[in-house]
Structure formats: C-alpha cells, structure tokens
Amino acid sequence: MRHELPYAVPGQVIGLLGGSFDPAHEGHAHITREALKRFGLDRVWWLISPRNPLKQSGPAPIGSRMKRAKEVMQHPRVEITRIEEHTGTRYTAETLAALMELYPGVRFVWLMGADNLAGFHHWDNWRWIMDHVPVGVIARPGDRVQARMSPAALIYRDARIRGREAQKLSHRVAPAWTLINAPMRDISSSQIRADGKWSNRD
Ligand SMILES: Nc1ncnc2c1ncn2[C@@H]1O[C@H](COP(=O)(O)OP(=O)(O)OP(=O)(O)O)[C@@H](O)[C@H]1O
Ligand SMILES: O=C(O)c1ccc[n+]([C@@H]2O[C@H](COP(=O)([O-])O)[C@@H](O)[C@H]2O)c1
Predict the structure, then answer these.
(1) 19 ligand 1 Cβ < 6 A
(2) GO molecular function terms here (predicted)?
(3) How confident is the model at residue 1, as a pLDDT?
C-alpha cells in the first residue's frame, strides 16, 4: 500500500528517527525533543520501520505501532511516518538515498540512541551513511562508553563535533556526527514487552 509522504521544502533540516517503535515510549519522545532543541532541526520525522534488517523476529503490525506512536508523540514539529513502505527500502542507507532523491535540497540528519552507534558498523553500507548524512547521537543509559569506543566513533573521530557545539551539526557537510549527553530516560520497548504492557493487535 502507498502512504502519503510528509511535506518538506528545500533548505529545511529534517531529523530522521528510525525505529521498530514496538511500542513507542517516552524515551523516543524525549530524545526527539532533545534533538529538535540541540541539533538545530526544523522538524523530526519518525520512520516506523516495516522491520529491522538485523532482528530475527518481526515486530507487531505496523498499524498498531503507528497508532501507539501517534499517541506517545504529539508535537507540532514531529511527524510519524511509514516512509519505508513507500520507498520499499529496508536498509537505512537505501532509505536515505531514496529520501535524498525524493526531496532535493532538503537536509537530512540521521538520529539514533547511543546503543545504535555502538553497533553501527554492522549496518549495511554504514560508511556511506556517515559520508553522506550528519548523524546526531543521543546518550542512552548504559551505552555511552561503548558508543564512544565503537568502531564507527573511532574511525570517524575527526568528524566528531563536541556536544556543546551540536547546533552546528545540521550545517556541516558529512561526515559529521555528535553524541550529546541529554538527561537520560531508562526505558525501552523490550522492557515494556517483557512487562506484558504491549498487546500486538491493530
Ligand atoms: N531511552 C532511550 N534513550 C535514548 N535513545 C533511545 C531510547 N529508546 C530508544 N532510543 C533510540 O530510538 C531509536 C528507535 O529505538 P527502538 O524503536 O528500537 O526502541 P528500543 O526501546 O531501543 O527497542 P528495543 O528495546 O526493542 O530494542 C533507536 O535509535 C534507539 O537507540
Ligand atoms: O541499515 C541497516 O543495516 C540497519 C540495521 C539495523 C537497524 N537499522 C535501522 O535502525 C533503526 C533502529 O532500529 P531498531 O529496530 O533498533 O529500532 C531503524 O530505522 C532500522 O531500520 C538499520
């Protein structure tokens, strides 16, 4: 099924937060508000993934994940999208390449929690992502040290912007990345699922 694409105009800076959101929670909303403030973004789009290419088991149906995400994140500068169904892409590098073609002149910033930076070197074409899109990383409980010492962080150490200068991120040409130490929220989708607080129905 085709879903409408969000609107953006050339020159705008859009932060992209991709995830399973199975289910969305306050941690996602919190890092989104921090990213808007700290990275000089005009808007943030959540990309509710059809499925994570590195995860074995599939998530809850995308309709129920979208519904929960819209309940959790209500903000005039944030849109909850199913863009990857539209583009038909599964890997983030492919999704970003498709978005850059669909939105010429729009500047995208890839957003993620520190846990994802720690494993970023396992992603498909991860160097292409680093070389083409600024990356904003937000601290997550337990993952900061691993993220700072990760292969991606070490290989791209010269492209790192200090947290206190994170506003520059969206104006830099890639490679450019930063890790900010926003106040952290110790919450995860897996914990919510383990607590039995998420029923997988549409
Ligand atoms: N509490 C949090 N603090 C910082 N980043 C977070 C937090 N929760 C999620 N994120 C980030 O949000 C993005 C989407 O996360 P995802 O939908 O996988 O949620 P999750 O809570 O990490 O799920 P799971 O526990 O199933 O792995 C990822 O980049 C992840 O690092
Ligand atoms: O492109 C990849 O190889 C890749 C590997 C793992 C995760 N991702 C993306 O990272 C985002 C977070 O995924 P998840 O499942 O941890 O919420 C989501 O947008 C995934 O599509 C992407």
Answers:
(1) yes
(2) nicotinate-nucleotide adenylyltransferase activity
(3) 53
